[in-house]
Amino acid sequence: MPQNAARPESAQGKVPAHVAIIMDGNGRWAQQRGLPRLEGHRRGVETVRTVTNAARELGVRMLTLYAFSVENWNRPPAEVGGLMRLLEFYLKQELKTFVQDRVRLRTIGRTDELPAGVQRQLRRTITETAGFTDYTLVLALNYGSRTEVVDAARAYAAAVAAGEEKLNDSSWATFSRYLGTADLPDPDLIIRTSGETRLSNFLLLQGAYAELVFTPVLWPDFTRDDLAAACAEYARRERRYGRTTEQVRAPVHPASK
To answer: What is the pTM of this model?
Structure first.
């Protein structure tokens, strides 16, 4: 990407409020350089810092990063252990910065199944940043959309059985309150790095109307300019939500506001 990649404001003035990223390519980045896979993950952590700052500079209000999926437990134990140690180290290192920059940390996923040390550091960081409202970083940890739906369906069924919900009044607005993202806005833009073109069980329901951008750039090489370019691509698109182009572009009369 060119160093002077356009800011998203340059196209129609639209900046995605919520960007979600599937951070892919750490292992391939390392293998291309003859390095251990874990070195690619370490380099990926540096990119997380870069992109978190870049998103704030570009006017993005919320950034969700797919950090560890429910399927990632199937990787070699040594790699999984290394990833967990990196996660705990990252949280410890970044806490002061989060507080200084007023970044709120949130998580989605079955975090109660993560190692005890990671859970402790997550709780501490979430607690100490809970009062910040300008910018939110969401880490998807031990997350998968299918698992999330199963958990939500179980909780919703229990609420119906307890008389707290009425089955004949069910709707997306009702059911979505039982998802891990209940109090979070849906993503406007989902980016996947590394050239793969699938969502890999990530925010499948919440991303129903998200714009998708797939880039060949491996995650450790992903820069501020790459993020700005993806946001500019988002700004060029027309989001219709089932309507026609004519309806979207029709002038809004004062009486109808």
So the answer is: 0.91
